[in-house]
Amino acid sequence: MPTGKYIVIEGGDGTGKTTQADMLQKHLESQDINVIHLKEPGGSPVAEAIRSVIVDGTLPRTPMTNILLFTANRHELWHDRIKPALEAGTWVIATRNYWSTLVYQGHGEGVSESIITAITATFTEQAYMNPDYGFILSLDDLATSKDRISERGALDKPDTFESKGTDFQQRIHDGYLAIAETYHLPIISASQPIEVVAEAIRDQLHI
What we know:
Layout: E1 6-11, H1 17-30, E2 35-39, H2 45-54, H3 63-87, E3 91-95, H4 98-108, H5 113-123, H6 126-129, E4 133-138, H7 142-151, H8 166-182, E5 187-189, H9 194-205
Parallel strand pairs: 1-3, 1-4, 2-3, 4-5
Helix pairs in contact: 1-9, 2-3, 3-5, 4-5, 4-8
């Protein structure tokens, strides 16, 4: 049985990753492809418990603690959900993977990219770190990103990263552009209509 494809949709907060992953899932299912959509952080009982700590902005912690929390989440998610699904021939769409940590803890919080990569490689596998397809959704206007986050109520309670200031959000935006160049990931403007973005993703997948 052929293995499934591992697809990662990345981007800053408010870029529409979940919406696009849901639309892609429906499209693949219409092609009779078995597919699941998983969100990082989270995706399994243990991973969801770790996520509850990660997103709690009332818990101060160091950037390295964030890296270790995210890595524990990924270790669990990879071995419990993603790898078994791929081996069974199921396609996996993930919103975020370790590229997020390269951006948020690397560019955003100042940790060396080599440290993040080494820790991730130790506790996942190369197949996790090298998805079959990856995309970066980008919004040039940070105000639009903040408006979208606010519309879904995410700013009503303190979040570890979404509630940080403009300087941090600019570093995140610039970090994704740098990651896209380093890892040869296509950048898709999330300012376009939702269906246009979805079509651009499908075009990259040739489906």
